[in-house]
Amino acid sequence: VQLQACGGGLVQAGASRRLSCLASGRAFNSYSVAWFRQGPGKEREFLAAVRYGTSRLYYSDSVKDRFIVFRDNAKSTVYLQMDSLKPEDTAVYYCSARYLGAYYWGQGTQVTVSS
Q1: Which end of the chain is more exposed for a tag (fewer CB within 10 A), N or C?
Q2: Whole-angstrom Cα distance, residue 72 to residue 19?
Q3: What is d(CA 96, CA 34) in angstroms, rounded to the nearest whole number?
């Protein structure tokens, strides 16, 4: 399983941004995929996840009113739609897949929110 996160960049506060996590492998429908972030001097933080099969969604309280996670199985991609971005959302954003009990990580994409 290989993951590639992209879509980061420099945005102004209040703007929206959509991140993509493209996964390799033929069993994408069997992956649960989660988004994390790590801000400067902070620990990695769970944001959102979409489960395989049921596509049940999970969110952290810190972003549940502003971020949406969804998947497109036909494109082997999981998205993180981020709205009303704040300077404190500045971080490297990572996607992670869980498959057959193992965890896989992408390389991360930087999101910088200017005030």
Answers
A1: C
A2: 13
A3: 5
Cα gap 64→47, rounded to integer Å: 8
Q: Note the Cα 6 to chain centre separation in Å.
A: 10
- Tens-place pLDDT, residues 97-107: 999 989 999 89
Contact 4, 108 (CB under 8 A): no
Length of the chain: 115
pLDDT in tens, 27-81: 888 899 999 999 999 999 999 999 988 889 999 999 999 999 999 989 999 999 9
C-alpha distances in Å from residue 13, one per residue of 2, 30, 55, 56: 32, 36, 30, 29
Q: Which of 15, 35, 111 is nearest to 77 (CA)?
A: 35
Burial code (b: 16+ CB inside 10 Å, e: under 16) for 91-105 equals: bbbbbbbbbeeeebe
